[in-house]
Amino acid sequence: MKQLMGLLLIIVVAVAVTLFADGNAAKVVLFFGQYRIDVSLNFAIIALVLGFVLVHFSLLAIRASGQLPARFKAYLQSRKQSALLDANTAGLIALITGDEPAAAKALKAASKTGIETDLSYLIRALSSIQADRLDEAEEILSHDKAQEGQHAVALTILKARIALARALPERAIELLASLDAGSARLPQAQHVKLFALIGLNRWDEALIQYRHCVASRALKQMDQEQAIGAIYTGLVAAADGDAARLKAVLSNAKPKELDNVLALNALSEGLMTCGESKAARVLLESALSNRKSLDLLPAYHQVAVHESRDALPFVENLLGANPTDLRLIELAGDVCEQEQLWGKAISRFEAVYARQPTAHLARKLERLYGTANQMDKARLWRDKLNAHLQAERQPA
Asked: What are the C-alpha distances in Å from 369 to residues 92, 362, 365, 383, 387?
């Protein structure tokens, strides 16, 4: 409807102008020196309008031609920015997926644009660290352009990560010390500081830092297991067989920390070394009671044999809950042997041998039958032992 009304309006105006021009006999006289030019008023009006339009568009063309270099430059800059964005995106995707060739290609494309941003340098540095190209990462972070921008905290943390990867924990601690209090609480900063303290064997500080990291959720589960195992192994080594210091470490430990296999192994071994076998037994039995797996059984084996009288009831209960575990059946046999329960020990070892015949079990059974004065069976197991030893001597 609007288009129709507009068309009618144009027709009306055109008719009105035509009628006006048709009945207009006026003339315009132009004098140029001795010359006189007579034109109709209609022609003069049309000439003026056309002249105005021509001058107007001429001025616009001159103005546009003056802006052309700037617009062309902006166009080229826009294309570079677009290429940089595409390269950064491809580099980040390759970094996440671990596609090293794609990451190198994308980051090379980013450098070719000549307008690398903070993001470009950080992606390139992180990609190099992830690929263990530490020299390349250091070179990127030491570039003049990489020092500019608002990413000083990220830059410091990346440099600390490189120092830690180079086994330079002192340098990592020095870099992290330059951060303000708020930045030092960032998860990655806490993570790097923890492993730097571990690298420096500053075990008490490392334990405090570990607890900060756990409280702020700055560690993955795998990193937690690795860190707490290393810390308690270091604390036991630092105690150097001092029972009082070991008990202090044990009393200061949190229940969640004593759920770590490496920590429990280190503590039990340290307690056994300094003559605190009872404390080691209680520690491991408590852990085994609360765990669904028997991953602590190798450490408990030595303790249970040493504390056989007190360990026997727990071993029997544990065997009742896990009647098919061969390691546990053999442990029960060793404990029974220590308590001179020859019949029980023999039945346990024979049950294991029936499912997993080995030379060391044949040796145990030979010894037990000899102790029980059953020499015929002892000779039988000696023959089986010799057969195992003969088979082990055969070339593969």
From this structure: 69, 11, 6, 13, 18
pLDDT tens by residue, 145-173: 545 445 778 788 888 888 898 899 999 99
**Phi and psi torsions of 47, nearest 5°:** -65, -40
* Tens-place pLDDT, residues 197-224: 999 999 999 999 999 999 988 888 899 9
- How far is residue 26 from each of residues 45, 47, 52, 290, measured CA to CA in Å? 11, 15, 22, 115
Start-to-end CA distance of the chain, whole Å, equals 98
pLDDT digits (tens, 9 = 90+) for 98-147: 566 766 676 667 666 666 566 666 777 777 777 777 777 777 777 655 45
Q: How far lies 325's CA from each of 309, 319, 351, in Å?
A: 22, 8, 11
Say yes or no to pLDDT of 194 above 80. Answer: yes
Please tell me the distance from the alpha carbon of residue 111 to that of residue 124, in angstroms, as a whole number.
Answer: 10
Helix ranges (H only) for 37-130 are 41-97, 100-112, 118-130
The size of the chain, in residues, is 396
Reply yes or no on whether the pLDDT at 84 is more than 70: no
pLDDT digits (tens, 9 = 90+) for 285-343: 999 988 888 888 988 999 999 999 999 999 999 999 999 999 999 999 999 999 999 99
**Given CA atoms 121, 122, 127, 129 in this order, what sign does their dihedral have?**
positive
Q: How many Cβ atoms sit within 10 Å of the Cβ of residue 278?
A: 13
Residues 6+ apart with CB under 8 A from 245: 238, 239
- Please list the alpha-helical segments (H only) found in the chain: 2-22, 41-97, 100-112, 118-130, 134-141, 152-165, 169-177, 181-184, 187-199, 203-215, 221-239, 243-252, 261-273, 277-290, 297-306, 308-321, 326-338, 342-355, 359-371, 375-393
